[in-house]
Amino acid sequence: MLVIEDHDDVCELVGRSLAKDGHRVTTAKTLADADECVRSNDFDAAVLDLGMPDGDGLVWCKHLREGGHSFPILVLTAQSAVSTRVSGLDAGADDFVAKPFAVAELRARIRALGRRGPMQRRSEFSSGGIHLDFSARRAHVDGREVPLTSREWSIVDLLVSRAGRVVSRSDILEMVGGEATPAAEASLEVLVGRIRKKLGTTFIRTVRGEGYAAG
């Protein structure tokens, strides 16, 4: 487990908490240190503070994904706005915890990321006339470009990264910054409907009582 945090007290708290769950923790106080850690080690997951002294954590996250690294990334942020979460998802983050945070929540979210299983991130996806370029965020259907909103891209990215598996509605709602309320569930159904309209009705499969799957 890689913890990227420049504040000693937070770094120690997070490291100690994760160690209680059996994780071997490596810490990095700068993004440059984190780069070196990633080059020389394999990690199951990372905890990333956005406000690092030598750069923007979201930019680092995006570069990491573009480099082919697929381990889950949980972001620590003092900004609770939905726009921040959407930007993080676009950059390749998997989950968020707002500061100040409860240690129990942090540990629970790390465990939840582990239960989701490995994500098969890819830069491009093609199937049945659909071509998705995740790096450029461009979608084509039968050669025609189709615009997707940021939230639609987040859902498509999540489903494709877990190809062959059902993704629960609650997991999808977490990714787009919502809670599992009736209103949020209805909004999710609208988003899925829009994606189907743009990419084809067979792109997203509904698994009754469980969630959605790609294809």
Map the helices and strands.
Elements: E1 2-4, H1 8-20, E2 26-28, H2 31-40, E3 46-49, E4 51-52, E5 55-56, H3 57-66, E6 73-77, H4 82-91, E7 95-98, H5 103-116, E8 124-127, E9 130-133, E10 138-141, E11 144-146, H6 150-161, E12 167-168, H7 169-175, H8 182-199, E13 204-207, E14 211-214
Parallel strand pairs: 1-2, 1-3, 3-6, 6-7
Antiparallel strand pairs: 4-5, 8-9, 9-10, 10-11, 12-14, 13-14
Classify the secondary structure makeup into a structural class. alpha/beta
The CATH architecture of the largest domain can be given as 3-Layer(aba) Sandwich
Number of domains: 2
Taking all residues together, what is the mean pLDDT? 86
- Enumerate the spans where pLDDT stays under 50 for 5 or more consecutive residues: none
Keywords: DNA-binding, Phosphoprotein
GO molecular function: phosphorelay response regulator activity; transcription cis-regulatory region binding
InterPro entries: CheY-like_superfamily, OmpR/PhoB-type_DNA-bd, Sig_transdc_resp-reg_receiver, WalR-like, WH-like_DNA-bd_sf
Protein name: Persistence regulator MprA
Q: Can you tell me about this structure?
A:
By secondary structure, the chain is α/β, with parallel strands linked by helices. The protein has two domains: 2-116, Response regulator (Rossmann fold, 3-Layer(aba) Sandwich); 124-214, Arc Repressor Mutant, subunit A (Orthogonal Bundle), CATH 1.10.10.10. Helix content is 44%, strand content 22%. It contains eight helices and 14 strands. It has helices at 8-20, 31-40, 57-66, 82-91, 103-116, 150-161, 169-175, 182-199; strands at 2-4, 26-28, 46-49, 51-52, 55-56, 73-77, 95-98, 124-127, 130-133, 138-141, 144-146, 167-168, 204-207, 211-214. The strands form four sheets. A five-stranded parallel β-sheet has the order 2-1-3-6-7, with helices on both faces. A hairpin with a 4-residue loop joins strand 9 and strand 10. Helix 3 (57-66) packs parallel to helix 4 (82-91) and helix 4 (82-91) packs across helix 6 (150-161). The chain is globular and about 50 Å long. The mean pLDDT is 86.
